[in-house]
Amino acid sequence: MGDPFPISAESISAACAPEYAMHPAPSVSATTVSAPTVSARTASPSQLVLDGVTLRYPDRVVLRDVSFSVTPGETVGVIGENGAGKSTLLGLIAGAIRPGSGDVRVVAPGGIAHAAQSLELPPGSTVQDAIDHVLADLRALERRLRSLEEQIAASAPTDLDLLLCEYRAATDELDARDGYTADRRVAEGLAALGLPGLDLSSGFATLSGGERARVALAAALASHAELLLLDEPTNDLDDDAVHWLERRLAGHTGTVLAVTHDREFLARLTSVVLEVAEGSVRRYGDGYDGYLAAKATERRRRLQQYEDWRAELERSATLVESNAARLDAIPRKAPKSGFGHGAFRARGRDHGARSRIANAKERLERLTSDPVAPPPDPLRFTPSFDGRDLPSTSGDGAVRVCGLRVGGRLTLDAFDVPRDGRVVVTGRNGAGKTTLLDVLAGEVEPDAGDVHVRGRVAYLRQHVLPSASGRTLAEAFAARAELHLDDARPTLLALGLFEDRGLDRPETSLSYGQRRRLDLAVVVTSGADLLLFDEPTNHLSPAVIEDLEAALDVFPGAVVIVTHDRRMRARLRGKHVALVSALTRGVG
Q1: 238, 324: one domain
Q2: How many structural domains are present in the chain?
Q3: Same-domain status, 319 and 356
Q4: ABC transporter domain spans which residues (predicted)?
Q5: What is the rounded distance in angstroms from the CA atom of residue 231 to the CA atom of residue 55?
Q6: pLDDT tens, 289-324?
Q7: Sheet holding 101-106, edge to edge
Q8: Could you tell me if 572 and 401 are in contact, meaning their C-beta atoms sit under 8 angstroms apart?
């Protein structure tokens, strides 16, 4: 927007003082909410409140009786697996989705900017249209200023004071958001996020999904809105772009809610974590470290509850057994004639033992009818080591590749992985990372070169496998893990990736995140010597990712992994191989 209509500050001050200072004109957020917004950026006990919110889709309940609040200035990380309802939660807060029941109250007079993963725009929309969509409240302010300028120019003297007051309120609000320089900030953001010089007149639909998300993110950050709602903001960003984003958000003076699976982002920026799972939302304080500490406490408490239940069960069973033995040991004397004390002594001892047995049996029945589930076993990969008779120094590693060529997708002169080695493969999209894993898994035949892979291989692909109709979750796991169904159920439960009540769900009804966990369960139980992972952190909750990393730490076999996760890259020992434009750039 250009400079406003030339209206003197003196005329505005004369018309509006002192009433303006006492009663500023109201502003309306770009997002409709269920409670009125206030008129200035003032301290509020809650920036937003969800109270008893439930949202149902035809096939499932997404959120059930959800209540939480966020205070002004908090940076909140929203976590959970794909399909849990994280994006839906942001849509509810933004006003794009209405709850089935409950209240959503948002106080954001400084504006709301929602950078969704996908924007719903009319066909033929341009990149500029997408930017204007995200900057809707700023664009509305600009239009209002232009309208007021026209009204002031044509107004009668009796109407001028009121119009000048409205004009001052609108200009103050736009100034508070630095609205006159928003377009410049959009261009700067696009450049920092890897889209310099993007043609704003080009069709928005011609961009890739990642590029469209970055356009929305750049516009949201440029808005200087009081409340930022960001959906997976670090997706498809290189390290430089992520660092720029983190610096930008660290300097944001308002409130941020960011859906993310980037644990480093969570650790560096968030003060609060909201975990979305099984239709509920739980709030954890003290950022990501506080979340991890709380999860560890929950595991210890669950283990203690199980151990207490087992101890009481054993104690009750012992009481039944010991009192039954005592009962058998009581002599069966014939009743004496008369009514002396000795005539009833054996009967009294008999009655006491029977009473103790009855009480112990009652406790035993109560404990067995309401069992405490055992805590899940830690994830653990157990290799078969088909070649374990060979010493690790023999030179026969898990992988040896020479002169590999796969069309125009991959060229690799040499690639070796020791039997217990760790290799992290990095590179931009299209560099051939997934192609390399496909070759090692035997799913792609190279055009040239020698590929030797030793032992059993398990492959967690970037995208989940298609679901088969007519199978339950337990049946799908049994078929893929080559287990009998009676063995598959306890094996799957022991991993802690699913609850018992969900094992009979149709495989076709599983969310993307649940299907990802199913794929992981198959890999964990495969007994493979070589593990191949293509973006293993995608679509999994941080808690599962932490467990996966712990399992990889102690896995004695070989691992080749493609990941953009900064924490995982730093934690994995071993070498890094960078692929650039289908050629090996270097090994470190």
Answers
A1: no
A2: 3
A3: yes
A4: 48-303, 393-587
A5: 19
A6: 999 999 989 889 988 998 999 898 888 888 777 766
A7: 60-70, 48-57, 101-106
A8: no
